[in-house]
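lol ok so funny story. i was supposed to be doing the assay writeup but got distracted and ended up predicting the structure for this chain instead. priorities right. anyway since i did it might as well share w the group, maybe its usefull for someone
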Amino acid sequence: MPPTEPPPDWVLTRRRTLGDRIRFARRSRRLSQERLGELSGQDRQTINRIEQGHVSTRIDTLYRIAQVLDVPLSDLVRE
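and the output, tada:
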């Protein structure tokens, strides 16, 4: 399998912005990463990686996170 190219800088920047928004909403609701993970069907490490912008996550996961945080998904991914 050929190696994949890293994503462009603009993608990494948007991942970090998404993670910052999730972190802000999570902290505003006084949830730990572990608790958000439990409620959204993820583990704490996955939530941490998303918040840090280290992973590309599935839209289904983002829907679940947004539901738990009681924010529209569009608020998390807006430009």
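The helical segments are 9-28, 33-40, 44-52, 59-69, 73-77. The radius of gyration is 13 Å.
back to the writeup now i swear
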